[in-house]
Write a structure and sequence with these properties.
The protein is of the alpha+beta class. It is built from 17 helices and 25 strands.
Length: 719
């Protein structure tokens, strides 16, 4: 020992030191080089061969620290600790990689302050030659009356390291983190470790057997973290094409891809054959030997995911036992890499679907902005939150928000189906409550074990809220299925949740089902509507009503001339819980509507002269709007046919509405009938259906929507 034992025979340092005799053979290397040798007062020991090359593994050591975290005693006589400069009086953190210093210092201080031991932390230590040693480090408080700490170090035996490495690598489904964990584990066998993955694996694409020479490798992990030579391939960069081709040809030349060992610099330069490739692949002058181990998925034929590389100095050649250990570790963890690839693929697919469902444009009468934040960036994520806004063919605008139960592809598939179904039904003229009835039935059908989208996945209890904005009447028609109430901000800045009757979520049991209601609210131009999912306002620390109130206050602070997208981000940042537990989605919609001079509405009795009166009223308005003659004739004929059909087949008071919308004119004729106009196969001379054929030929599109009192037939004419 390098110091006299402490007076307390039961101190942790003495207990650990007394155990060393069971691990260090009497008269062995440790006895030949005592730590307190007078020839070397700093305690430096000569370099030894890599521990894997020696016979028995000697793995236990101890270091005592004072309250300033400086070394006061040490027992690192086992050969495995050769090269650790634990100099008496030096800071213990000098043994640590730079990036680990803050964390380990915090742990050491914590044990000093609390007296509670910190046990079995997997830690890397730096040798004086720049290589690293992986140990299991425990921090123990010194026994009274002594002060300070005892740090016990157990060098990771090969078999123990294999187990610990495999356990660590399997903890993440992120492809980059998985590759990084593998590289850090491989560092126990060398000075530098790198993992290069097939580009298809990196991006999560399907992996298939390719022709030789077509593989493209990307550096997915590289340790340790240091300054690399100019031209060397670092994290995130693609390997040169020649290097990828050489590696792929080498590891694909047999049914069982082999490991490759190049023992020295001469062999490496001979194989690579180019100074540029040497600069790109060899991490410095001292690293002269490399073992390349392919990451392989077993199969017929086997599929190569990439290659792991471990670099060493030439004076430490790889032993056969070490190559077997390397191959075993890489073989054990290849399936983790493939799982991460599959997760990356699923994550990419779901994100693509999620982004596809985000609103792009809500038309000219509504401005929209949305924010979506998944629970975690690498969540398998990405849950079932979705929002959509789109103009309806009749000039109104639909705003939809939904929250599908669960995460992953099952939730994503349900989310996509419900979103597209809602859009199709709303575009077909159905009211929001009727659309929710269809979605409710869809969710029930998807839960069927035989016809459901995904085995074991259920979307029962998903929520949805649909709002339809009429830019002429400036009214919102809104229906909700179990969703939190939207927030409406009036032009004067007052904000409050809309009083929407609560309703069970989609797919509720039959006994719990109630008719979906339609709530109508006035939304003058300048009003702001906020649709959101529960992840934005739910916080276990506060009541849900308080979360909704905070959101209302944040939305009310949005100024009329604020950029809506920036305002949406600001609202989310202000309101989102500190600890995000669920996906967060927000849709802001600013109502604009049509200018008063761009619309006109008339109510006419259902009499034989209704068509003539409608033509006269519309003709006067079109002259006022200075509509060109060809368009005016088409609109007059269109209005005449629609009003005539309403009088003939429907009855009741007739409403005629004309809207000047951008490059088109929108004509609407409402009546009290409930029959659906259909375009038959007859020609223009046939008595039945002649009016609809005229409508069809004159317009760019036309359709029907249903109201509480009947229906509205609308048609658009390009000006």
């Amino acid at each position: 020992m390098d110091s006299t034992p402490s007076p307390s025979s039961s101190s942790p340092f003495d207990l650990v030191s007394s155990a060393l005799g069971r691990y260090i053979p009497r008269g062995g290397a440790a006895a030949a080089h005592p730590a307190d040798s007078r020839d070397d007062p700093a305690g430096h020991q000569p370099e030894h061969d890599h521990p894997a090359a020696g016979p028995p593994e000697q793995i236990l050591g101890a270091v005592n620290l004072d309250r300033e975290l400086r070394v006061t005693h040490r027992n690192l006589e086992a050969p495995v600790f050769a090269g650790l400069d634990a100099v008496i009086g030096s800071p213990f953190v000098d043994l640590l990689p730079q990036g680990d210093v803050p964390t380990v210092t915090r742990r050491l201080r914590q044990v000093l302050d609390t007296g509670e031991a910190h046990v079995a932390r997997v830690q890397r230590l730096r040798r004086r030659d720049g290589s690293e040693l992986v140990v299991s480090m425990s921090i123990l408080p010194a026994a009274a009356p002594q002060e300070g700490l005892t740090v016990s170090l157990i060098a990771m035996a090969r078999r123990l390291h294999l187990y610990a490495a495999e356990t660590a690598i399997g903890t993440s489904l992120d492809i980059g983190e998985t590759a990084q964990s593998l590289a850090e584990s491989l560092l126990a066998w060398g000075d530098v470790a790198a993992v290069d993955l097939d580009f298809a694996v990196w991006t999560g694409e399907g992996v298939t057997e390719r022709a030789q020479g077509r593989i493209r490798l990307r550096r997915a992990a590289l340790v340790p973290d240091r300054a690399w030579p100019e031209g060397y391939v670092t994290l995130g960069e693609d390997l040169p094409g020649d290097a990828s081709r050489l590696l792929s040809q080498a590891i694909r030349r047999a049914d069982a891809p082999p490991s490759i060992v190049l023992p020295d610099r001469q062999a490496i330069e001979r194989v690579l054959g180019s100074p540029r490739l040497v600069r790109a692949l060899v991490p410095g002058d001292r690293s002269a030997g490399v073992a390349c181990v392919p990451l392989v998925l077993e199969g017929d034929p086997p599929v190569v995911l990439g290659v792991a590389e471990v670099w060493r100095r030439a004076d430490r050649p790889f032993a056969d036992s070490e190559l077997l250990d390397l191959q075993e570790l890489v073989a054990r963890t290849s399936h983790h890499v493939d799982l991460a690839r599959q997760h990356q693929r699923e994550h990419t697919q779901v994100l693509a679907l999620q982004r596809r469902l985000l609103p792009r444009s809500a038309g000219r009468t509504v401005q929209t902005a949305s924010v979506y934040r998944p629970t975690t960036p690498d969540s398998a994520g990405v849950g079932g939150d979705w929002v959509n806004s789109f103009p309806l063919p009749d000039g109104r605008t639909a705003l939809v928000v939904g929250d599908v139960v669960g995460h992953g592809l099952g939730a994503a598939a349900t989310m996509g189906q419900l979103s597209m179904e809602a859009r199709a039904l709303l575009s077909a003229g159905l009211a929001p409550d009727e659309v929710l009835e269809h979605l409710d039935e869809t969710v029930t059908l998807l839960d069927d074990p035989e016809s459901g989208l995904a085995a074991g996945y259920s979307a029962l209890g998903s929520t949805c809220c649909i709002a339809v904005y009429d830019p002429v009447s400036h009214r919102l028609a809104l229906s909700s299925a179990g969703h939190l109430p939207p927030i409406l901000v009036s032009p004067d800045g007052r904000a409050a949740p809309l009083p929407v009757h609560p309703h069970p979520g989609l797919g509720a049991e039959f006994a719990l089902r109630e008719p979906f209601g339609v709530h109508t609210f006035v939304a003058p131009p300048g009003s702001l509507l906020a649709l959101y999912t529960d992840g934005l306002v739910e916080d276990p620390a506060v009541p849900i009503d308080e979360g909704i109130g905070r959101l209302a206050a944040a939305v009310s602070a949005v100024h009329p001339w604020d950029t809506l997208q920036q305002a949406a981000r600001r609202v989310v940042s202000e309101v989102m819980p500190t600890r995000q537990r669920d996906d967060v989605t927000l849709l802001l919609a600013r109502m604009i509507g049509y200018r008063k001079g761009d619309t006109a509405t008339w109510r006419l009795p259902a009499r034989d002269d209704a068509a003539a009166r409608a033509r006269a009223l519309v003709a006067a308005l079109l002259r006022q709007w200075r509509t060109r003659e060809g368009t005016r004739d088409s609109v007059l004929l269109l209005v005449s046919e629609l009003v005539t059909n309403a009088v003939r087949f429907a009855g009741g008071p007739i409403t005629v509405r004309l809207i000047r919308a951008g490059p088109g004119l929108l004509c609407e004729v409402g009546d009290t009938g409930n029959g659906r106009p259909r375009l038959g196969r007859g020609g223009l001379l046939d008595d039945g259906g002649r009016g609809l054929h005229v409508v069809h030929r004159l317009t760019s599109r036309w359709g029907v929507r249903w109201t509480d009192t009947g229906k509205v037939v609308w048609a658009e004419v390009v000006r």
